[in-house]
Design goal:
With 270 residues, the protein is of the alpha/beta class. It is 43% helix and 14% strand. α7 links the parallel β6 and β7. The protein is globular.
C-alpha cells in the first residue's frame, strides 16, 4: 500500500500547490510510481504540470464522485518529459494526475445533499494507493466538507506556512482542526514547512522559534523554502525549479524537501 501525503493549511497563498508539484515530480524523477490528486477547486495541478485542458475531462473529482466515472477514466498520465532525466543515473518512475476543478466544491455539496458517506472519497483513492508508491494530495486554501475525508485518506500531512503572524495563526487553527477531527482519521503531521522565508530578518527568526516552541519536532526550519522569484519563473515556464534552473538554490531546497520526505517515510516503514 502506497503512502498518502496531503499538503494542507486553511490559509491560502502558502505554497501548497508548488510544494505538491515538486514533491510529486521529484519522487517520480527518483523512480517511484506517484499519483497526484487535486482537491483544490482552482485546479492548478493541471496547469503546473503543463497539461493541456480537456474541458469536462479535467473535472476528475466531480466525475468520479458524482457522475459515477470509473477511476481509470478520470486519470491523466503525465508525460515522461515532465519528470524524466532530473536525476542522473536513475530511471524515472510514473506520474499520474486525478484532476480537480471548479465543480470539486459542487461534488461535496451534492454528496452532502444526498446524505452520501464521505468515506466514499477514501474508497475512491484506495486503488491509487495500492498501485503507487506515493499519493500526493493538493487541497483547498480553506476548510471544506472534504477535509475530514482527506485526513481520513492520508498517512501524513505537510503544513506549508509563511513565517509571519497570520501564518502562525493559520497553523495553530489547522492543528486545532487536526486534533478536533482526530476520531475520524489517523493521519500524522509530518512537517510544518516554512515557505517564502527571509532567513536574515528578525521576524523570520522570531516566528521560527515561536513555531518550534509551540510544535516541537514538527517544524522543518532547516528545510525551509527561501523567497525567490525563480519559483514563479519556473511555474510560468511549466517546469519544476530543478528542471528550470538545476544549479539554483531553489532547486537544492526542493530536492532537500523531497529527500527529507523520503527519509521520514522510509524510517517509519523500517
Amino acid at each position: 500500500m502506497g503512502v498518502t501525503i496531503s499538503l494542507m493549511n486553511q490559509k491560502g497563498g502558502v505554497g501548497k500547490t508548488t510544494l505538491a508539484v515538486h514533491i510529486g515530480v521529484g519522487l517520480a524523477a527518483l523512480g517511484y510510481k506517484v499519483a497526484m490528486i487535486d482537491m483544490d477547486p482552482q485546479g492548478q495541478l493541471l496547469v503546473s504540470l503543463a497539461l493541456d485542458s480537456m474541458g469536462d475531462d479535467d473535472e476528475g473529482i466531480f466525475n468520479l464522485l458524482v457522475n459515477g466515472y470509473a477511476l481509470e477514466d478520470t486519470l491523466r498520465q503525465v508525460p515522461e518529459d515532465r519528470f524524466k532525466g532530473y536525476v542522473e543515473g536513475r530511471d524515472s518512475g510514473t506520474l499520474t494526475l486525478l484532476p480537480g476543478g471548479q465543480r470539486t466544491q459542487l461534488a461535496a455539496l451534492d454528496m452532502q445533499l444526498r446524505g452520501a458517506d464521505f468515506n466514499i472519497l477514501r474508497q475512491a483513492f484506495e486503488p491509487l494507493q495500492t498501485e503507487n508508491h506515493f499519493v500526493i494530495v493538493d487541497t483547498p486554501p480553506t476548510l471544506s466538507l472534504f477535509t475530514p475525508a482527506i485526513l481520513g485518506a492520508s498517512n501524513y500531512v505537510i503544513i506549508p506556512t509563511e513565517l509571519d503572524r497570520l501564518g502562525i495563526d493559520g497553523v495553530e487553527k489547522f492543528m486545532g482542526t487536526v486534533i478536533n477531527l482526530s476520531g475520524m482519521h489517523s493521519a500524522q503531521v509530518m512537517a510544518i514547512l516554512p515557505t517564502r522565508t527571509k532567513p536574515q530578518t528578525r521576524e523570520h527568526l522570531d516566528r521560527a522559534a515561536e513555531l518550534s516552541t509551540k510544535f516541537p519536532g514538527l517544524v522543518w526550519t532547516d528545510y525551509g523554502i527561501t523567497e525567490s522569484t525563480l519559483w514563479k519563473e519556473a511555474s510560468d515556464a511549466g517546469l519544476p525549479v530543478f528542471g528550470y534552473a538545476p544549479a539554483h538554490q531553489a532547486a537544492d531546497q526542493a530536492w532537500r524537501v523531497v529527500g527529507r520526505v523520503l527519509e521520514v517515510v522510509q524510517k517509519a516503514n523500517g
